[in-house]
Automatic annotation (TrEMBL):
This is Thiamine pyrophosphate-requiring protein. Residues 612-638 are annotated as: Disordered. It comes from the Eukaryota. One of its GO terms (molecular function) is catalytic activity. The lineage of its organism: Eukaryota, Viridiplantae, Chlorophyta, core chlorophytes, Chlorophyceae. It comes from Pleodorina starrii. Belongs to the TPP enzyme family. Pfam families: TPP_enzyme_C, TPP_enzyme_M, TPP_enzyme_N. Residues 612-629 have a biased composition (Basic and acidic residues). Residues 386-540 form the Thiamine pyrophosphate enzyme TPP-binding domain.
Amino acid sequence: MGNVADGIVDRLRAWGTHRVFGYAGDGVDPLLAALARAEEDIEFVSARHEEMAAFMATGHAKYTGQVGVCLATQGPGAIHLLAGLYDAKLDSKPVVAIVGQVVTTAQGSGYQQEVELPTLFKDACAQYVQTVNAPEQVEAVLDNAFRTAIATSSPTCVIVAHDVQQAEVPEKEHAHGIVPSAPVTAAPRVMPSEEDLDRAARLLNTGERVALLVGQGAAGAASEVAKVAERLGAGVATSLLGKPVIDESLPWACGVMGHLGTTAAADLMAGCDTLLIVGSNDPWTEFYPAPGQARAVQIDISARNLGAKYPVEVALAGDATETLRALLPRLQGTERPWRGEVETMVDTWRRVAQARCAEPGQPLNPQAVVAALSGHLPADAQVSVDVGSVVYWYARFLRLPPGVPAHLSSTLACMGAGLPYGLAAKLAHPDRPVVAMAGDGAMQMSGNAELITLAHRWREWADPRFVVLVLSNGDLAEVSWEQREMEGDPRFPASQDVPAFPWADHARLLGLEGIRIDRPEDIDKAWATALSADRPTVIEAVVDPATPLLPPRATESQVEQMLTGLAQEGADRAAEQLRIQREHEEARHRWSCAAFGDRTREGSDDLAVPIRRERGLPTDKGPVRDRPRSGLRPAQHRRHRLALEEGNLKVGSRWSSARLGC
């Protein structure tokens, strides 16, 4: 029958596992030997660190929809898995971690590398952590680990001591205490009741300014989301994880919501009176409509998420695609002037985005570097994004072709996941190009090590294109701007300085291609060259750390906090860049006042408040539902957009439409 290690590998095969990510150690030596005997069926992918292996397993789950499997030895190896497993937990992805342990005869003695593993994993893998104590357990434990991971979209953990891995598996018995099991599961068909669907439709049909917030739970439902948006005359914003779901070229696609999102998404949430949340559990609650502003319906396959981030009147537990299909015939397609407002919000944001990308950098504007990828990204590409300021530029400025997957560590927001995610995507689909984007801080944290894995593996791939963009600014920029915004403190160089590193030269030393750019005219050429290369390419883009990370609809106090921190630094250039972006915001608010009566919801700190005073309007605006409608018909909104395009719409004495790139 073989030993327990062989039995584990057999069960992995039965569950359809083709790839295990891990790092070697004596606590899993029998398992490694069993994997070697099964290497025609299951590939072992050796990362440079167990944390990277866990990120790869999470990435595998994200790009394939299948269970990711990672393997680590006892003690430090097990501990290193935690960040990647928490990433899977918080972004709701199925991962099974198989972990070695010291021999059973030494457990409880304080043996070398002995760690209380069930305690270690009880939170990260809260749904299922189990130690295999006897050979007869192995099948049932692995089956439960896989079933639970799939059913709960979360990580699970199986712990197997070294000597148990070596033990022989006895013949199966039908006896007391022996639990038979099978490697099967099934996804339940979760649908709301007809009564609840009717209630949801009645609420949505009464809305005059409907917004949709779409998350990763709506993956595969892009067509249904579009039909509902068209029927309701709604605008659509996405969570960060939901960005790939929606074609952002559509006129009502407002982009990503949140601190790192677009002003169009923020305006949509601020102006709506009705909200439909589809497959999103986004944590940026301050960017949702204010409580009491909008009536809400939420669709989620997990009942635990319903009403968890926003007060909803109708909760629909169900699959997003099927629920939207069932809801659609119940929705009324009446004309809503709100759609014209939404399209104008989107147009305005796109022009502001163009203006921001057109601002000169020293030497490069990072926004322009990421935005330029939109014109070069292949339709069959896969994208991974690390954590840091690069996420802001991805969320706001990269337009993904429909169907292109893009993933990142979103809820945990852990630096260092970008390259492991990209490698997992490439290993799953070696015939498709990959673009991984990261800052120099994240690359120095772990990405540099996984460049070695990239250099080791790329010759096996049908399509060798794998582009790593490194935004090199010598700064942990997101942390620096957070210190300024949240604390009014200056940047702390000892904490945030990132040492200079020759990324392009290093890539060439590894046998990869390396391109260093520091002139705007070289940006497009770099993307074109990298995406047509015969091997993986590292683009080292030397970018400006003074580019502000200003949130959408920034308040006066947020801006003043930033300026206070910058003044203490003597960072005149960053302060000037912040003032320019602040003018973008003021211009947008002034124009919104002129076009829509300024349906904003912030209090006296809102940048629109002084504008309202100038126009003799009340600054205490009250609930959105009680404020006057703009009364503009779609044709009038089109005229406003044309006026903006032609430079005829004045938006403030310190501003001109030329600066918007019109």
